[in-house]
Amino acid sequence: QVQLVESGGGLVQAGGSLRLSCAASGRTSRSYVMAWFRQAPGKEREFVAAIGLSGGSASYSDSVKGRFNISRDNAKTTVYLQMGSLKPEDTAVYYCAARFQIIVTQAGRYNSWGQGTQVTVSS
Hints:
This protein is mostly beta strands. 0% of the residues lie in helices and 51% in strands. Strands 2, 4, 5, 6, 9, 10 and 11 form a seven-stranded mixed β-sheet that branches. The protein starts with a strand and ends with a strand.
């Protein structure tokens, strides 16, 4: 449906900030809600944040609320995840995901995924 490519991951010290980007392509990409999930070794894929059509609504997991911000640039069909006050427990592979129209938090309900970008937060 849509093609997603993440970028911006890297190594950062605890308390620092990092901004992830996800570039979307496809004829109907602007009609998709977009989300960020993360997965640490040995753990299930976890919902992080999602943003609705045109950025009119957003949802965050309790673990990142107040620290992370999701936004989108519809002209560029790009979604961002601004991460602040990073903690070692934020270390994971972060994935961008998309589905049509409706924000949900279940990974299985998203049908388009990026390749992931590694975020490592050191103590």
